[in-house]
């Protein structure tokens, strides 16, 4: 007779194998426009590019106000993971020349070079790989190029400046820079960890419930 604990392991393995989501290199499509980065352990929403763009503070407010996949706590990408959200950064890692591991400190840089296969100086709409298709606003006809990060160049001071990353500027794609926080750029929200909008299919739960029922029967027979 199969022990109930062993049977439970079979149930869990079966359920998770049914619920698996296809992956694209280091990116996993979680549905609902949510894309999980398995290396950085963050989930990307879709790039947000309202007409004319928004200021840095407006972008931060936009991200913080999101509820996606049933969770809040979204933020802008980090120019430096080490500095953390809102931390001042004087020199972010340059992912055009840094190695993959070092580049992990720069979330937008990692997206451009490591996840999307971007080329320095060339629009991601032209140079990117198949992962680009996960983000409609990065396709050639809809390309949005300048995205705010969560990091200012310095805390305080007038005027305050913040870091941005260029995804499509002619000759500037793949570079980062600072600009007045009052200038209009765009927002691309991220969330720590794996956020999914894909519910486990009803058939999977039905299958799992059936196996759990068998566990109950096995336990009752053993008790008898």
Write a structural description:
There is one protein chain. This protein has two domains: 1-19 and 202-224; 23-199, no CATH class. The chain is an alpha+beta fold and 224 residues long. It has helices at residues 4-18, 56-64, 100-103, 107-115, 124-127, 202-223; strands spanning 23-24, 27-29, 35-37, 42-44, 146-152, 161-166, 176-180, 190-192. Helix content is 28%, strand content 14%. Residues 1-24 and 202-209 have low confidence and may be disordered. The longest helix has 22 residues, at 202-223. It is globular, with a radius of gyration of 22 Å. The two termini are 14 Å apart. It has a five-stranded antiparallel beta sheet, with no helix packed on it. Strands 5-6-7 form a three-stranded antiparallel beta sheet. β2 and β3 (35-37) form a beta hairpin.
């Amino acid at each position: 007779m199969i022990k109930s604990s062993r049977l439970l392991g079979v149930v869990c393995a079966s359920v998770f194998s049914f619920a698996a989501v296809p992956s694209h290199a280091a990116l996993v499509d979680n549905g609902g426009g949510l894309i999980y980065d398995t290396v950085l352990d963050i989930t990307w929403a879709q790039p947000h590019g309202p007409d004319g763009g928004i200021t840095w503070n407006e972008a931060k407010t936009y991200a913080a106000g999101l509820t996606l996949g049933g969770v809040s706590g979204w933020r802008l990408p980090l120019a430096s993971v080490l500095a953390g959200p809102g931390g001042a950064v004087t020199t972010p890692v340059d992912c055009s020349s840094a190695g993959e591991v070092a580049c992990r400190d720069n979330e937008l840089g990692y997206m451009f070079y490591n996840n999307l296969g971007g080329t320095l100086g060339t629009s991601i709409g032209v140079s990117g790989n198949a992962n680009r298709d996960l983000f409609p606003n990065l396709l050639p006809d809809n390309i949005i190029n300048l995205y705010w990060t969560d990091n200012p160049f310095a805390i305080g001071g007038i005027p305050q400046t913040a870091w941005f990353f260029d995804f499509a500027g002619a000759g500037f794609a793949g570079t980062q820079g600072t600009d007045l926080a009052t200038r209009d750029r765009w927002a691309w929200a991220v969330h720590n960890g794996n956020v999914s909008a894909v519910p486990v299919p009803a058939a999977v739960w039905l299958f799992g419930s059936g196996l759990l029922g068998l566990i109950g029967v096995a336990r009752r027979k053993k008790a008898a």
